[in-house]
């Protein structure tokens, strides 16, 4: 019997939270769930915890592999998944008991290729830290133009829009039709090659979808870890952001997605870079290194066409000041702004 949903859980060094994650999946109100635990070379007790669960529950599979990163771990799960639909859950997060029942029923009712929802941020201690949703009501996207609108919202909000419309880019809050993923040979790129591997994957999914739904509910509990992968300062990361900018631009042009999509891509790139500069300036590296890295970013040739086209005047004042400092390579001002943001 084919499982209704395969849930892929990439695992690395999270033994403190793994039980809560797996128990939440076992408690799902939807029957016929396949749980795939991917031990990505975890150095702690996670491999044994995974094996113990697999020995106790027949619907749990375990894959032990050499560490290759989150994206590659997800791909290992896709290679063995057998469910009608597939989902992903980080091993230090957990989901509400009705998440996959709700999303699966919607997917079945409307023959969706993907169902998106929001998430709830929690601290590492499990304390609520805010909710992130895309919209306040149920929305069905059922033709190319509508799905292109969703795709643009996935990248970033329109800079001229009065309200934020950006959708969660995380693959963790999406239920995917597995047949579409396999038929189109869709896989994650490594985050060691491109940042925001979830964004690239979701753009590819939407590009091949006929019907997509976005729900207003939030079922996914996401731990915000101040020392997680996404918060680590790496000197070469700006080059990865540049490559992401180029990759998303190329994909959208190939798909024929127009109507100010380039401004959205620029907004995304500015946002990533702004956060990265703040991380650098608030890090423990030397002041000389901070100035060298920041200066090389601000002077990069990629900004020249962006400064010519992006509507800086519509940015929120703090972002506008920060962008002004970037544009003119005012290191001292950037340092002050980064400290304020911290």
Automatic annotation (TrEMBL):
<dbReference type="InterPro" id="IPR029044">
    <property type="entry name" value="Nucleotide-diphossugar_trans"/>
</dbReference>
<dbReference type="Pfam" id="PF00535">
    <property type="entry name" value="Glycos_transf_2"/>
</dbReference>
<dbReference type="GO" id="GO:0016757">
    <property type="term" value="F:glycosyltransferase activity"/>
</dbReference>
<protein>
    <submittedName>
        <fullName>Glycosyltransferase</fullName>
        <ecNumber>2.4.-.-</ecNumber>
    </submittedName>
</protein>
<keyword id="KW-0808">Transferase</keyword>
<dbReference type="InterPro" id="IPR001173">
    <property type="entry name" value="Glyco_trans_2-like"/>
</dbReference>
<feature type="domain" description="Glycosyltransferase 2-like">
    <location>
        <begin position="6"/>
        <end position="134"/>
    </location>
</feature>
<keyword id="KW-0328">Glycosyltransferase</keyword>
């Amino acid at each position: 019997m084919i499982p209704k949903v395969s849930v892929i859980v990439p695992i690395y060094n999270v033994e403190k939270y793994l039980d809560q994650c797996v128990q939440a999946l076992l408690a799902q109100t939807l029957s016929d769930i396949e749980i795939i635990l991917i031990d990505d070379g975890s150095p702690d007790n996670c491999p044994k915890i995974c094996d113990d669960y697999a020995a106790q529950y027949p619907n749990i599979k375990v894959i032990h592999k050499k560490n290759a990163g989150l994206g590659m771990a997800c791909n290992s799960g896709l290679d063995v998944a057998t469910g009608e639909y597939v989902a992903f859950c980080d091993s230090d997060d957990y989901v509400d008991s009705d998440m996959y029942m709700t999303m699966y029923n919607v997917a079945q009712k409307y023959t969706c290729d993907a169902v998106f929802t929001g998430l709830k941020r929690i601290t590492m201690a499990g304390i609520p830290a805010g909710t992130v949703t895309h919209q306040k009501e149920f929305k069905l996207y059922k033709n190319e133009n509508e799905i292109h609108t969703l795709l643009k919202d996935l990248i970033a909000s329109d800079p001229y829009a009065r309200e934020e419309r950006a959708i969660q880019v995380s693959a963790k809050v999406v239920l995917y039709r597995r047949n579409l993923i396999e038929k189109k040979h869709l896989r994650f790129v490594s985050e060691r090659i491109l940042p925001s591997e979830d964004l690239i994957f979701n753009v590819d999914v939407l590009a091949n979808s006929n019907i997509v739904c976005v729900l207003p509910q939030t079922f996914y509990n996401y731990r915000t870890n101040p020392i997680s992968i996404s918060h680590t300062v790496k000197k070469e990361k700006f080059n990865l952001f540049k490559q992401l900018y180029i990759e998303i631009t190329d994909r959208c042009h190939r798909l024929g997605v127009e109507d100010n999509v380039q401004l959205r891509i620029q907004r995304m790139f500015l946002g990533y870079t702004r956060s990265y500069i703040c991380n650098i300036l608030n890090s423990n590296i030397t002041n000389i290194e901070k100035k060298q890295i920041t200066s090389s970013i601000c002077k990069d040739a990629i900004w020249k066409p962006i400064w010519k086209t992006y509507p800086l005047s519509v940015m929120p004042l703090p972002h506008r000041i920060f962008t002004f400092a970037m544009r003119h390579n005012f290191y001292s001002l950037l340092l002050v702004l980064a400290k304020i943001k911290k």
